[in-house]
Amino acid sequence: MKTLLMSLLCIVCLLTSCTDDAPISNKPEGTLNFIVEKTNSAESGRLLSSDSLKSVLISIRDEKGVLVYDRLQIDLISFGGGYKIEPLALKAGNYQLIEFVALNKDGVATYAVPKEGSTLAHLVADPLPINFKIAANAITEVNVEVVKVEEDNKDLFGYTVLSFNIVKTFSFNIAVFTYNKLSQTFELSNANLIVKNGGSTIINQYLQNVTNKIYLKDQSGNYTLNVAKQGYAAHQRQFPLDELKQYANSPMVITLYPTSLTEGLEVYYPFSGNANDESGNQHHGTVYGATLVQDRNNNINSSYYFNGNSRIDLGNILDNLQYPFTFSSWVKLEDSNNIYNPVFTSQDNAPLYNGFDVNTNVSGVGIGYGDGYGENNPAYRRGKTVNSSIYGVWTHICGVVSGPNNIKLYINGKEVPGYYQGETQLPMASNFPNDIARIGQMTSNGVTYNFKGFIDEVKVWSRALSADEVPASM
């Protein structure tokens, strides 16, 4: 029987738990690489790409016996005349490698690690299961030797290495950003990821402050992703399989917002695959003509495009709203002609000036409210406008209304000087049961105006955000 031994060096950089606040750095952590070599009396050196390996199957369980990876199939990549695999992530703790099989391009087992007690176990220094420990902020090296699988030894490994069902897998990339108050920018951050399919948890994995590649079983049904970090509101979204696979090459970008920004949050429409309200108040929207498209981060089906004759109705949801209040949203205007391109109105349908609305045009952004006493007369409204074009480029707009003479407008997190319009000094009126809130459309003085362009991340707070909170809400 011809036997070939091949030594694999597994390098595992360690991860901390999901509640740790690891400092942000540029050094990647949590990688798992295989450096492949072969040695025997006749031949030694690196396993060459001419050996025609295509992928590896690995199974790893934790110290509680829970399978972390169950025959996960990972493609091998030619590198420097040999092979490497994409990084894998593991939390700190104790583990066992319980299966390791290398496959050729036809999916046939070519090399495998024999199991302790099997006929071939004596050929390797450390047969399966192989114990290893992942310690925080350290590198663990695991030496693995495999035996070439041949016709006369295929039943001697202690487990089946030829006749098995390969678990079909796929991968996607994900990057998480949080706000850094000192630099006043969003930066890559660590977090924790839980992925479920059909109610069952597939993985519970630590994400590093880099772009993370995640491997999942390819199975029917929708995948639910939950990204969480201590001190920040969790992000949850459901993905069809085909949509999740589209992040194989470019990363899904997730922004986590401080939990302090949930205080007074009345509505939050992230437009992550639908028009649902994620504030917890269940004010879900009904879409008329608007279509899901990529957002500013190129995330798929993560913002809405309004074609100039579309809207999202939210119902009578803000009847009790008074100032102070805050509105914020990401917008990209496509219409250069209309004087009004309404992003949001809190009280549409009534002939009177009431509630508040946010409008844009090619040269400016404005927010205003009505006192509920009249129509078509500046005496019954009050607002502020800034000269700042949002035409053709994703722009974050935020209006903070604290009173008739205390209205602030922020563009991309920075307050911009503007000018007041309207004369009323009375409070905003909102209690109109027949009115509804709308995104992308508004009727004023009998004329209906429509927004044309892109809208994302619509939020309304029943309080005034501070100057520090506004950029953190972007």
Automatic annotation (TrEMBL):
SUPFAM superfamilies from the UniProt entry: Concanavalin A-like lectins/glucanases
Domain LamG-like jellyroll fold, first and last residues per copy: 325-468
Cleavable signal peptide: 1-22
Keywords assigned: Disulfide bond, Signal
Top-level taxon: Bacteria
Xref: Pfam families: Laminin_G_3
Protein name in UniProt: LamG-like jellyroll fold domain-containing protein
Organism whose genome encodes this protein: Chryseosolibacter indicus
